[in-house]
Design a protein that fits this description.
single chain, 321 residues, alpha+beta, Endonuclease I-creI, 2 domains, four-stranded antiparallel β-sheet, 12 helices, 7% strand
Length: 321
Amino acid sequence: MGRSERELVTALRAELAAIDPSRPCDRRAEAAGLGTPAPAREGAVARLAVRLGRERAAAAPASAGAREATGRTASAGHGLTGPAPDAGPAPDAGPFDPAAFDWPAAADHCRMAWLRGLFLARGSLSLAGGRTHLEFVVPPEHAAELARRFADVELPASWRIRRGRGVVTWKSGDTVGLFLRRIGAAGALLELEARQVSRALRGDLNRVINAESANVQRAVGAAGRQIAAIAELEADGRLAEQPYVVRSVAAARRETPEATLAELADRLGIHRSAVQRALERIERLVLYPEAGPRRTRGPARGAPRSRHAARSGSRAGAALA
């Protein structure tokens, strides 16, 4: 049995939290994305918080001299600005300050590490009902800036203010999948994409089955009406008065009620349109018995001609005389 959607999201977050970047700048960027220390809700994120906290604690004495000289630390080309990080547990969802990470100066790998930390701290992925929905909840004054940063990495997102909080949202499954892949998701993302493909295939298959079922129902209903009309015409003797093609189509329909119009046409050696006209004529005779068969061609033999035809005929006769 496959995992539930909630379990899949938990596995995906655990997979991202277990990533151990090889570059120190990526680890610092991920810590900046996580934010200030706050209690972690998930075990994987809590372990990541402890790991990053220990690394920062070990790096703090080595950089003490530099902090005393400059009062600030900076990783040129890696996007980290602001005061040096303090030792302690790593962050999860504390106060969010995008200014703590110098986005314009950061390399792409540092940006992805920062976004990974941001997702673990403030991202909420929902797969309920077959719809993919990913949102980040941030202070309202930072929502526009976060949306701009997503646009910088070609992942445009919408944002709004909801109940006093900024919400940056993706509702496209393709965009969410691309984002997760870029921040390091692998196995769990493959399972997620496989579920999306399977769900799409099931949806297409259901549409095809529904369309075919509707066509079969219409064909069965039409065949039932035609057989009933044929029986009524045969009972009152009107079927015997019909042209040969109509009688042949009626006999073929009674013998093979399940046959399609094309199959009846192949069996009788006539065009499909001739079969359709014959069956329409049969149903029309039952529905409007007083109207009689509808003529689709020229006037019957012996019928009065139009005034123009009569005048043309008289002229032709005079010319011959």
